[in-house]
Amino acid sequence: MSAPSASPLAEARKVLIIVAVVQFVIAGWFSWTSSHVKPRDLPVLVVAAGQQGSGFADALREAAPGAYKIKTADDAEAADKKLKDREAYGAFVPTAKGLELHIASAASPAVAQALVQQAQELQGGKPVAVTDVVPADSDDPHGSGIGMGFLPLLITAVIAGLLFVLKVRSVRAKLVGLVGFAVLSGLLSSLMLTQFTSVLPGDYFVTAGVIALLELAMVGAITGLGSLIGPPGIALAAVLTFVVGNPLSGMASAPEMLPQPLGAIGQFLPAGAAASLFRSSGSFHGAGAGGPVLVLVVWSLIGLGLLFLSAKRAGAKAAGAAAPTGTSAGAASAEPVTASAS
Description:
Number of strands: 5
Structural class: alpha/beta
Strand content: 5-15%
Largest sheet: 5 strands, mixed
Mean pLDDT: 90
Radius of gyration: 27 Å
Shape: elongated
Low-confidence stretches: 337-342
Order of helices and strands: HEHEHEEHEHHHHHHH
Number of helices: 11
Strand order of the largest sheet: 2-1-3-4-5
């Protein structure tokens, strides 16, 4: 006798409680990470002009303990090269006329603004000469446009992974859908972000490749784990890649501006790797792109590997289900022969 099903009112109560609790946790997590943004071991340079440069580095450490990871550069030209190579976010240049600041706002407009404020504080509130070595894109000088454009890439990846698991039965069809979605998403989203809204300064096809790799990593993880262990796999992969990954991506600020070690951990998730790769492949012409590319490739391979394992498990189950049927059929065919012999 089957167990009685829950009443519609009980089901509604269960849904509203679960969703409200999830909303409570996610809202707290997202808001907490955003409200605790500040420099933490932020890589910066000090142009060391003898004793003057050394003294300034000490003054910077004293003014903001733990905020900066300070390295030195021989001169402003060497500092600018390091900024273009994404080795630092800014360079403080003490001179006889006062403090100068070199920044690369394309690496993070939020960090650039924080460095300008820090330099002004060190100058006693006086204006500081600022040189933007690698400026942010003129169509999105504050980085808010790409921040908003980045979020739909993550949300639609979760939706695609969910639908591939729930609506597509064949593993081969899931694989075709996964790769096809990644390619189409890259081509269309890059068209929007580089041509129509122009919030990304990079090459159209390079940006398309970055987006395709991001979608392949996220959708692959969700589809692969969901196909392997069912709805819990969908939830686990979605939480890891989106709920955890999005606030820790550093897209709105920088990984070093987030609470640590969370900011560093975020760079090993697809969203964080893609955020860094967007910046490297655009204004910095590929500088510092190796690590993020590796992270996205690894996540993509993990997703494809999980999808392969789900296919092997489904094949084993099908073979196991067919074996008893074949045995019983053989027994049935042997029975008339025994009867005729008697």
